[in-house]
Each structure stands twice: as structure tokens, then as C-alpha cells.
């Protein structure tokens, strides 16, 4: 994770990540936004308990239960408050659903204590093995983490930037170098602290939709998270189905970008369609983006318009192909490792 973050930082300082982002065509950007909206909605429906797995059809609708009804009640409150233009509608809906859960759901227990100071980050912090990560056998894993982190963050950035009014009239994103640089630094800092990959999260759209437009919003959110750590027994009371309606609402808000996709032109419409479908169905932003990038470049070539593909887009397409070839890379790494072993 640290190595991938360091690589991102170098790419950002050289301006290469910005060029990669700017090479993505508008149709794919719209598809990414809609796809992440569908993804968020799918996660919300799962957390609500309304969509469950099925051995026959992969997913199915669950029968109504007390917890689902509580979550739907929170969703109804959010919709009503949104119609009335009440600020903080999502937060109010979560709070009401949580209160109902505590009152009527026996599975939600009140905390035995309200403060817990038994938190020791030193158990996992500063446990880096950078030299071990640079071994041949780990290179494919590092590349996979790098690709997923890079395009998950890029996809999230492209999806939420229009909602935050950060897109210029020419389609470029304001202060994109700073945004990408902070993402890389956060990845490295998270690795030092012993966490998994630290990256921008798609749930950011919920805060943006409620009015968060500046970096101060993120700083305040981070500070509140730190202050909430000792009070985790209280925070843990909030059930998933109470916060699920907020994700569904954000997914709804992001669906409006579907009008920016020209589905009548298969050269741009099909890649955008693959992006928005595969992000949700594969449960992976990076996988959906890879499908879109490869199909876009391929269709431009097949239609006799390879000149429409920017040089940076060719690089993105190559990285996407390598991403799908990680199994081959793993096998190659094993062969090289065996060959280097005396």
C-alpha cells in the first residue's frame, strides 16, 4: 500500500495523473458518475436488507421485516424533508431511524458503556516491510493495489466533482493536482498507520449533496471521527439499515448524469453503458472503469477513429488490460521467483 501511494505521489508531482484524468472522454465521465450512483444504491439496498443473495438468481428481494420497515421509514423522512428543502435531511432521517431501531428492534442493544479508551494503534502502526513489497512475488499484488486505488479514487473524483461545483466550463476539474496529491499522501499515511488503502470514498457524495463543498468539510469530518473514537460504543448503536437510506438517496441524486450520455452513438454510448453497469454488478469501481476504457479505445479503432484517442488514454487502456491480466502476472512472478531461488 505504501509503495503504491509513493508511486501515485510521483505520478502526481510529474503531472501524469492529471493527464490521465483529462484524457477520459465526457461520456465515460458521465457513465462513471451514474455507475457509482447505482453502486451506492446497491450497497444501500443491501445494508437495508431489502436485497439479499440468492443461489438461483444471485440477488433477490427479501420479505419485509421490522428492520426494513424502519429503514424505509427513514427513507420516507429524507424524501419529505428534501421536498421541503430542509437542511440536513439525510442526517435527520438517520437519527430518526436509529431512535426507532433502539425502541423496536431487540437486535439493537443499548451500550453497556459510553466511553472506551481501549484503543492502541501501535499494534498495527509502523509495521512496514517495504523491501518485502518490492520482491518479484509481490509486484503483481502491488500493481493490483495501485490500479484499484488509482482508478477508484479517480472514478470517485470524477463522479463527485460535478456535484461539488468543481468542474470548469471546459470540463476540467479545479485544483485537480492538489486533490490527487492529497489522495496519494493519504494512502501513504494510512499505510504507515497500518490501515488498508486509504482513498476517497464514494459516500462523500452524501456530504456534498448536503452542502459540503470545501476542504473544511473534510477536515471537520476527520476531526469528528477522531473525537468519536472514544465513544465507539455509542456510535456502534447506529445500525446499517438506519444509514442505508442515505446511500439510496445519494444514488438517486447521481442518476441525473445519465442524460449526459449519448446512447445513440455506440462508440461512446456502449463504453459508458459498460462502465455504469459493471461498476454496480462487479461491485468494483476499478473493474467497471477498466471495461469502459478498453471498450472505448477498441470501438474508436474499429470505427476508424484511432486519432480520437488521446495518448494518455492509450496508457489507461494498457493499464486496464494489465489489470485483467493479474493472474498471468502472478504466474510470471512465481516463475521468476523460482528461477532466482538458488
Describe this protein's structure.
It is a single chain. The chain is mainly α and 342 residues long. The chain has one domain. Helix content is 66%, strand content 2%. The protein has 16 helices and two strands. A two-stranded antiparallel sheet has the order 1-2. The model has no long low-confidence stretch (mean pLDDT 80).
> Helices and strands, in N-to-C order?
HHHEEHHHHHHHHHHHHH
Helix fraction by DSSP (H/I, runs of at least 4): 55-70%
Number of domains: 1
What profile does the largest beta sheet have? 2 strands, antiparallel
- The N- and C-terminal alpha carbons lie at a distance of 29 Å
Mean pLDDT: 80
Report strand %: under 5%
What key phrases describe this protein's structure?
16 helices, 342 residues, 66% helix, 2% strand, two-stranded antiparallel sheet
Which SSEs are present, and which pair or pack?
Layout: H1 2-13, H2 16-22, H3 26-48, E1 51-54, E2 58-61, H4 66-83, H5 89-104, H6 130-133, H7 136-160, H8 176-193, H9 204-209, H10 215-228, H11 232-235, H12 240-254, H13 266-281, H14 285-302, H15 311-324, H16 326-340
Antiparallel strand pairs: 1-2
Helix pairs in contact: 1-7, 1-8, 3-7, 3-12, 3-13, 3-14, 4-5, 4-12, 5-12, 7-14, 7-16, 13-14, 14-15
Amino acid at each position: 500500500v505504501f509503495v503504491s501511494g509513493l508511486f501515485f505521489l510521483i505520478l502526481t508531482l510529474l503531472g501524469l495523473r492529471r493527464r490521465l484524468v483529462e484524457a477520459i472522454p465526457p461520456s465515460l465521465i458521465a457513465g462513471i458518475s451514474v455507475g457509482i450512483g447505482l453502486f451506492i444504491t446497491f450497497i444501500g439496498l443491501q445494508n437495508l436488507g431489502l436485497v439479499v443473495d440468492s443461489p438461483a438468481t444471485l440477488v433477490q428481494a427479501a420479505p419485509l421485516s421490522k428492520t426494513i420497515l424502519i429503514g424505509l421509514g427513514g427513507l420516507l423522512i429524507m424524501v419529505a424533508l428534501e421536498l421541503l428543502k430542509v437542511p440536513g435531511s439525510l442526517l435527520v432521517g438517520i437519527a430518526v431511524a436509529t431512535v426507532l431501531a433502539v425502541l423496536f428492534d431487540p437486535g439493537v442493544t443499548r451500550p453497556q458503556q459510553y466511553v472506551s479508551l481501549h484503543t492502541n494503534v501501535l499494534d498495527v502502526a509502523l509495521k512496514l516491510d517495504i523491501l518485502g513489497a518490492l520482491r518479484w512475488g509481490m509486484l503483481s499484488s502491488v500493481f493490483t493495489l495501485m490500479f484499484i486505488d488509482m482508478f477508484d479514487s479517480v472514478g470517485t473524483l470524477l463522479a463527485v466533482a460535478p456535484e461539488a461545483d468543481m468542474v470548469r466550463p471546459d470540463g476540467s476539474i479545479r485544483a485537480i493536482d492538489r486533490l490527487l496529491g492529497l489522495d496519494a499522501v493519504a494512502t501513504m499515511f494510512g499505510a504507515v498507520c497500518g490501515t488498508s488503502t486509504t482513498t476517497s470514498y464514494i459516500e462523500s457524495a452524501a456530504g456534498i449533496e448536503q452542502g459540503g463543498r470545501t476542504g473544511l468539510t473534510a477536515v471537520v469530518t476527520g476531526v469528528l471521527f477522531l473525537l468519536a473514537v472514544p465513544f465507539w460504543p455509542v456510535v456502534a448503536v447506529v445500525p446499517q439499515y438506519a444509514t442505508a437510506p442515505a446511500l439510496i438517496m445519494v444514488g438517486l441524486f447521481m442518476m441525473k448524469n445519465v442524460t449526459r450520455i449519448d446512447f445513440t452513438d455506440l462508440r461512446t454510448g456502449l463504453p459508458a453503458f459498460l462502465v455504469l453497469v459493471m461498476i454496480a454488478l462487479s461491485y468494483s469501481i476499478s473493474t467497471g472503469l477498466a471495461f469502459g476504457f478498453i471498450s472505448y479505445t477498441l470501438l474508436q479503432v474499429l470505427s476508424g477513429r484511432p486519432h480520437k484517442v488521446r495518448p494518455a488514454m492509450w496508457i489507461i487502456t494498457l493499464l486496464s488490460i494489465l489489470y485483467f491480466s493479474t493472474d498471468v502476472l502472478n504466474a510470471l512472478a512465481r516463475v521468476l521467483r523460482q528461477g532466482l531461488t538458488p
